[in-house]
Amino acid sequence: MNIIQYILLLLIIFVIHRIWTRWHNREISRREWLGWSLFWLAAGISVLLPKTTDLVAGKLGLASGRGVDLIVYISIPLIFYILFRLLVKIDNLEQNITKITRHLSLRDNIEKKEE
Amino acid sequence: MKIYIVIPAFNEADHITKVITDLKNHGYENIVVVDDGSTDGTFELAKKNQVKVLQHVVNRGMGAALQTGNDFALKQGAEVIVHFDADGQMLASDIKNMVDPIINEKIDITLGSRFLSSKGEMPLSKKYIIHPLAKVINYFFTRLWLSDVHNGFRALSAQAAKKIIITQDRMAHNTEIVEKIKKYHLKYREVPVTIKYYEYGQSIGGGLKILRDLLIGKLIR
Prior knowledge:
heterodimer, A: mainly alpha, B: Spore Coat Polysaccharide Biosynthesis Protein SpsA, Chain A, seven-stranded mixed β-sheet, 8 helices
């Protein structure tokens, strides 16, 4: 095994550990726990046995037949999609915070009028 | 005619009293200060001046504060709402010219313009670089060529204020409002006003933030 494999494995083990403790503390749902565990498990396998990803890449018809390429091709659109989702979420959150803030400021004033 | 002056204020303790006094001296009684989560005592100062003061418990941006002011003014039965800055850059004496077309000529909304009059000094980089760019971007988003964008001095009829709901919390609300004028076919007019510059206002960085907000608004809403 190469040094890079040790480093990546350590990172993955750490992440899986975090996922499991969060599941244990009921901070994430069962679905999240399962999904993320599988994802990082797959990541672990592809680090330990890089050839398995080449197999998948070949099956999918990648000209280079390299699993690393496949991972990059999938990751980039995925990351952009997640970014987009996050942007939408943050925007919604911000709008909701504004709504609450506005509601509070207007409500306070109606109350003061009744004094 | 019930004219409401809405003043969004974020950390404007240095100017707020003078701005309010000035407005009162010009005979405006319905003054609504929206303190946007200031940390410098703007809220308390404004309260001392015997005007209506609304408070955002956290800072939400100028667009958000204006919408809060609009909501409040409409609830109080405002017929005309004037957006006025808390930093003393605008002149209370200009308000009459802004409001008159709405009262007398059934204009829905008037927008202050620095370029229709020769009064007021503007930093040169603003005049020749930032503003031409802002105009183009404004046109791109709104399809309305205005002689001035983003100075924030405007007056709205109650009907216009009911239609134009500001969802851009920060500085992109200026463009959003123009966009909605076009969208709802509101009758608008530009009115020459004087803006005094002792601070630079929106810099290039601020302009980029506005552009970012506009793009995000376009993409995901």
